[in-house]
Structures are given as C-alpha cells and as structure tokens.
C-alpha cells in the first residue's frame, strides 16, 4: 500500500516540498497529492509589480508537475482533522470531499493582516494575494494625476510597494507612513540609499506615524494627524491561514504551528508545517520571520526529513540562517542589505542598478525552483520501509 503524502498549499514552500519529495521517494511506494485552490503558481514576491500594471508570466501547475508523479487537486482546504488524519476540501465545482493522509505537509501560508485598525478592512488595499493586487491595479489605473496614495507599513513590502507605485506613476502623490523610522533596521549605508531613492522618486515619508484609522479619503495617525489618501495600501504584516488554529495541533497565539528542527509538529508527528504557517526557530533561538527567504529552506528541510524517516535515511541537520535582505526599489534600483545569521544588519550593503539585477535574479531563481520542481537535484528515489503504525518511526530498513 502506498504511503499517502498530502501537501496543502502550492505557494513557494508547498510546491517546492512536493517536487522535492517526488525526487526523493520511489513512485511505487508513495502517493503525493498537492492541494491548491488556484491552477497556477502565484509569484507573491511580485505582487507590487502586478499592482502597477506589469504582467507576470503564467505558470500552470499542470505543466510544472507533468510527469513528476505529483497529483494536483484543485480545491480549497476547509478543515484538517489531525486525529482522523483527514483533510476536508471543496472543489472548484463546489463539491465537498475528504482526503486521507499518512503524512501531511501544511503550507497554507498567510494573508494580509489589518491589525484590527478601524476602517482598514473596509477601505485599504492589500498586495498579499493576486486578487488583492489586481483590485489595487484597477484602482490605481483610475486615479487622476496629483491624487494621493498612502502606503501604510515601512517593512520590506511597504518599501517595495511605495517605490514601485512612485516609479510607475510619477504623476501621483505617493506617501509612506511607518510606525518607526524609515529603514531603521538597516545599516547606515542601507538607510542612506533608501532615503536617496525615496527623495529621487518624490515619496513623502511620515515617520513614527502609527496609523490608527482608515477612511475612504484619509488615514489618521496616533497623534491625530490626518493624511489624505485617495488610495490606501496596507502592508503592516501577515496573518496565517486560520485552518491550523481550528485543529488539535499545538499552535502559537497567532495560529502558527509549533515545529521542531525538521519542521515536524511537536504535537502530531504525522504533520509537518513549512513557510509562514510554521513557528520555526533559527539562529539565536529567534523565530524565523514570515518570508520567502525563510520559507524555501523550511520546505527543503521538511521534504528531506520526511524522506529520511520513510526510507531509514539520515535526518537533515542543516541550520536555517539568513544571508541578506533583498529589496527592490522600483525596476531600476535596489538594496541588498547583508545580515548576520539571525537577520541583523551588518555594515555592508549593495545598492543601485546592480542590486536591482541581484534582486531580479533572486526572484527568477525562486520561481524557477517552483516551476522545475524535480530538476536541480540528483535523482535518489529511495524505497519506503515499514513504519511503526502508532508513531510513524522507522522500525526496519528495506533490503
């Protein structure tokens, strides 16, 4: 009987994990099912580009996983029963179904987070999803010259959104409102370059301005200041998919699944969580931040750990660490901030056109890894060994 592996979510982490498992495990022994609501891959790190009118290359899963042995199930996940080891889904035609698993890889990711700020959900736009980016695209296209656009949030996404809009639409009055200082986590060189580009693009920066309310034509800050906004774009962080919180899995107060160093749930050994859905610990015992930079290594780690446990191999022991933060500042400028293993900025930073090219190569490389899930690795499809039914641990190696 085949060991049933179900991967929930086909973003960067889920798609990479499914492909890596297909490369590691023998098809006769394992059935891998990838469940996703959309039929093609979404390059989430490019949603700010989509929002300003740029078209992205379509990447259908039917082509990406053709011949890999991975079965694609187009459906929305509505629930997971970790005691019965089942996943409830609703197919595109509205029909409900249930999938049984032996090993589950939870990669449902995250969406935008309005932080409970009054009016944000009703009036602000988000770029954490393709539908959100497309709605913002339509709204921006309808703005007349001189109208104000306010980006709320000074993290990586906020910086990329503000500069992309300002470069694509220099006729608009673009502003950014950030709770702290502009790029205050960057090195001196990084902050200096960021301020230079913001000045060149004419972006107004409201620093130490926590937004406490959003209306159709303005945002309000904690000190009572009203900032005009024909369009407000909300980029203050992410909230994980709610399914995990409704299960018996051990999760944090924000709904992230608590995992060990192999991305295995600490409460349910048949479940692995990767990407934004996982509360994984990196160097310095610091939680990994929600990002593609964190997510892809967790996918590698989980896939290799699952393969090792199923085949009697050696568990991976590769620490997940950071090397840099890659920020696009429009299409012609960028900033690569080099960081310590635990994500603290160091003095070195790459700036200018070369940094923009570097960031573009990173984005293309991540998409290539998803679009070619079984390439780039040596073929080592190993046979699955008999497992202990109760614990899932390997008890005998195959001949």
Automatic annotation (TrEMBL):
Q: Where is the FAD/NAD(P)-binding domain?
A: 4-303
- Protein name, per record: FAD-dependent oxidoreductase
Q: Give the cofactors, semicolon-separated.
A: FAD
Q: Which InterPro entries match?
A: FAD/NAD-bd_sf (IPR036188), FAD/NAD-binding_dom (IPR023753), NADH-Q_oxidoreductase (IPR051169)
Q: What Pfam families does its record include?
A: Pyr_redox_2
The UniProt entry's coiled-coil ranges are none
Keywords, ordered alphabetically: FAD, Flavoprotein, Oxidoreductase
Q: What family does the database annotate? A: Belongs to the NADH dehydrogenase family.
């Amino acid at each position: 009987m085949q060991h049933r592996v179900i991967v929930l979510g086909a973003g960067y982490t889920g798609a990479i994990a499914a492909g890596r498992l297909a490369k590691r495990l023998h098809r006769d022994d394992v059935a891998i099912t990838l469940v996703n609501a959309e039929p093609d891959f979404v390059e989430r790190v490019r949603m700010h580009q989509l929002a300003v009118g740029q078209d992205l290359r379509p990447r259908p899963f039917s082509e990406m996983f053709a011949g890999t042995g991975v079965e694609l199930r187009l459906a929305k996940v509505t629930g997971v029963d970790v005691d019965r080891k089942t996943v409830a889904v609703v197919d595109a035609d509205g029909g409900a179904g249930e999938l049984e698993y032996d090993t589950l890889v939870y990669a449902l990711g995250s969406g935008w987070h309005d932080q409970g700020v009054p009016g944000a959900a009703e009036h602000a736009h988000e770029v954490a999803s393709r539908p959100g980016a497309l709605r913002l695209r339509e709204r921006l296209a309808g703005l007349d010259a001189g109208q104000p656009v306010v980006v709320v949030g000074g993290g990586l996404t906020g910086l990329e959104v503000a500069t992309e809009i300002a470069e694509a639409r220099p006729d608009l009055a673009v502003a950014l409102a950030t709770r702290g200082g502009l790029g205050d986590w960057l090195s001196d060189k990084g902050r200096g370059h960021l301020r230079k580009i913001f000045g060149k693009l004419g972006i107004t920066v409201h620093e130490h301005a926590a937004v406490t309310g959003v209306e159709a034509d303005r945002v309000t800050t904690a000190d009572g200041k009203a900032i005009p906004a024909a369009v407000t774009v909300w980029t203050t962080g992410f909230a994980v998919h709610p399914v995990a919180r409704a299960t018996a899995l051990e999760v944090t107060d924000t709904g992230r699944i608590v995992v060990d160093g192999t991305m295995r749930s600490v409460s349910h050994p048949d479940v692995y969580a990767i990407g934004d859905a996982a509360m994984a610990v990196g160097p310095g015992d610091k939680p990994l931040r929600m990002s593609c930079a964190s997510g892809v290594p967790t996918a590698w780690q989980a896939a290799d750990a699952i393969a090792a446990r199923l085949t009697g191999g050696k568990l991976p022991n590769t620490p997940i660490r950071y090397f840099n933060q890659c920020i696009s500042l429009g299409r012609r400028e960028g900033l690569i901030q080099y960081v310590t293993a635990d994500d603290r900025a160091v003095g070195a930073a790459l700036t200018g056109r070369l940094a923009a090219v570097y960031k573009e190569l990173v984005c293309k490389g991540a998409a290539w890894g998803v679009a070619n899930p079984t390439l780039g690795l040596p073929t080592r499809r190993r046979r699955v060994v008999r497992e202990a039914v109760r614990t899932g641990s390997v008890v005998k190696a195959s001949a």
